[in-house]
C-alpha cells in the first residue's frame, strides 16, 4: 500500500452546483473585506474538516454512491488539491455512507460555511482588538449551541490479514482537538495529520 502524507497533495476535481460555488465566492469576498485571504482550496479544506467533524452516521455500509449530478441543474467542475490524509478520511466516509465527495462539499458549503465565517471573523483582528465587525460575528457564533475549537483530523489504515480468500483491514479517522495539546504535540500532528 502507498504511504499517505499530509504534506503531499492529491489532484482531482469536484462538481458543484453553480449556486453553491457562488456562495463560496461570496464568503471569500467577505473574508477579503476583513483582510483574510483564503484560496478556494483552503476554503474546501476547512469545509471538509467541518463536515467530517460533524458527521454522525451510525447505519450500515451503503451498497453504492447516490446520484449527485441531476439533470436540469447547472454544475461547475472545479479542481481540488487536497492533502492525502484529509482526502483518505473523506474517501473513507464516502464509501461508508454512499455520498460522493462533491455532494459532501456541497452540503458543507450550505450548512457549515456560515459557521466558518462566524468562527473566524468573530475573533479579534491582528492588532488584538475587538472592533464592531468582529463583535457582530462573535455574537452570532456565541448563539450557536455547539462551538468547536480548532482540531486535527488523522487517518490510518492497517491491513491485518491479506491472504488467498481473506482480506481483513481496519480504517480509523480521529478528531484531535488542539486546546489541550503541547506545542510539541501540535508540531508532530502538523507533520502527520490534516
What strand line-up does the widest sheet have? 1-2
Mean pLDDT comes to 80
The stretches of 5 or more residues where confidence is low (pLDDT under 50) are: none
| Cα shape | globular
Relative strand content: 15-25%
Termini Cα gap: 20 Å
**Radius of gyration based on Cα positions:** 18 Å
Helix count from the secondary structure assignment: 6
Oligomer: single chain
Q: Count the beta strands.
A: 4
Could you spell the SSE succession in H and E letters? EHHEHHHEEH
Most strands sheet:
2 strands, antiparallel
- Structural class of the helix and strand makeup? alpha+beta
The level of helicity is: 40-55%
Describe the model:
This protein is an alpha+beta fold and 194 residues long. 45% of the residues lie in helices and 22% in strands. It contains six helices and four strands. The strands form two sheets. It has a two-stranded antiparallel sheet with strand order 1-2. Strands 3-4 form a two-stranded antiparallel sheet. A hairpin with a 2-residue loop joins strand 3 (151-163) and strand 4 (166-177). Helix 2 (40-54) packs across helix 3 (84-97) and helix 4 (101-121) crosses helix 5. The model has no long low-confidence stretch (mean pLDDT 80).
Question: Key terms for this structure?
Answer:
194 residues; alpha+beta; two-stranded antiparallel sheet; 6 helices; 45% helix; globular
Amino acid at each position: 500500500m502507498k504511504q499517505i502524507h499530509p504534506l503531499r497533495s492529491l489532484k482531482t476535481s469536484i462538481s458543484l452546483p453553480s449556486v453553491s460555488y457562488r456562495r463560496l465566492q461570496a464568503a471569500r469576498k467577505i473574508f477579503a473585506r476583513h483582510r483574510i485571504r483564503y484560496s478556494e482550496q483552503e476554503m474546501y479544506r476547512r469545509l471538509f474538516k467541518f463536515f467530517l467533524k460533524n458527521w454522525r452516521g451510525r447505519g450500515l455500509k451503503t451498497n453504492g454512491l447516490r446520484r449527485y449530478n441531476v439533470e436540469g441543474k447547472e454544475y461547475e467542475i472545479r479542481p481540488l488539491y487536497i492533502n492525502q490524509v484529509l482526502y483518505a478520511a473523506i474517501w473513507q466516509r464516502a464509501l461508508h455512507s454512499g455520498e460522493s465527495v462533491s455532494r459532501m462539499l456541497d452540503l458543507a458549503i450550505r450548512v457549515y460555511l456560515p459557521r466558518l465565517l462566524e468562527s473566524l471573523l468573530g475573533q479579534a483582528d491582528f492588532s488584538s482588538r475587538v472592533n464592531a465587525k468582529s463583535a457582530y460575528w462573535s455574537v452570532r457564533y456565541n448563539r450557536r449551541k455547539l462551538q468547536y475549537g480548532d482540531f486535527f483530523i488523522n487517518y490510518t489504515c492497517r491491513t491485518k490479514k491479506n491472504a488467498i480468500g481473506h482480506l481483513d483491514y481496519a480504517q480509523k479517522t480521529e478528531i484531535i482537538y488542539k486546546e489541550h495539546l503541547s506545542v510539541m504535540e501540535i508540531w508532530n500532528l502538523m507533520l502527520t495529520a490534516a
